[in-house]
Amino acid sequence: MSGSLGRVAAALLRSGRGAACGGLRGPGVRAAGSGGGGSGSAEQLDALVKKDKVVVFLKGTPEQPQCGFSNAVVQILRLHGVRDYAAYNVLDDPQLRQGIKDYSNWPTIPQVYLNGEFVGGCDILLQMHQNGDLVEELKKLGIRSALLDEKKDQDSK
């Protein structure tokens, strides 16, 4: 796996900053609204996490993450070339913010779901990236990690 992400993510996590990165939204990335009132109900959250193959609940948007952990998750997905995912800004809706914590029984944001299953937060996604598990999980979803192509290019040099 690429060591560059580990260094970038570690630096982001140490600084605790969310980069105001314009242009991060690629084709298919949907910075979805919170859905309005009652968005914290288990039934509605169940529908949200199962609606798309990759779903992220974060502070801010993919274009402008509002914390370093949310930014790191966006960068990890970007490095893997994941373009088609739904992103929900929990800062827009306090009910959504608390509801997703209750739904997953996980106390922090961001939260990542793959194929309707809770994966974890930034630390788990970073670990999955570093040990190669994320490539395998994406493959199960029919998503080819861009890092495979990068590795193939490096091997051919």
Fold blueprint:
Layout: H1 3-15, E1 30-32, H2 42-51, E2 54-58, H3 68-79, E3 86-89, H4 94-104, E4 111-114, E5 117-120, H5 122-131, H6 133-140, H7 146-155
Parallel strand pairs: 1-3, 2-3
Antiparallel strand pairs: 2-4, 4-5
Helix pairs in contact: 1-3, 3-5
Secondary structure: number of strands = 5
Beta-strand fraction estimate: 5-15%
* H and E order: HEHEHEHEEHHH
Give the strand order, joined by hyphens, for the main sheet: 1-3-2-4-5
Largest sheet entry: 5 strands, mixed
Number of helices: 7
CA-CA gap between termini: 17 Å
**Secondary structure category:** alpha/beta
Model description:
The chain is α/β, with parallel strands linked by helices and 157 residues long. 47% of the residues lie in helices and 13% in strands. It has 7 helices and 5 strands. It has a 5-stranded mixed sheet with strand order 1-3-2-4-5. A hairpin with a 2-residue loop joins strand 4 and strand 5 (117-120). Helix 1 runs antiparallel to helix 3 (68-79). The longest helix is centred in the first third of the chain and has 13 residues, at 3-15. It is globular, with a radius of gyration of 15 Å. The two termini are 17 Å apart. The model is unreliable at 1-27 and 34-38 (pLDDT under 50).
Describe this structure in a few short sentences.
The protein has 157 residues and is of the alpha/beta class.
Note the main attributes of this structure.
157 residues; alpha/beta; 5-stranded mixed beta sheet; 7 helices; 5 strands; 13% strand; disordered N terminus
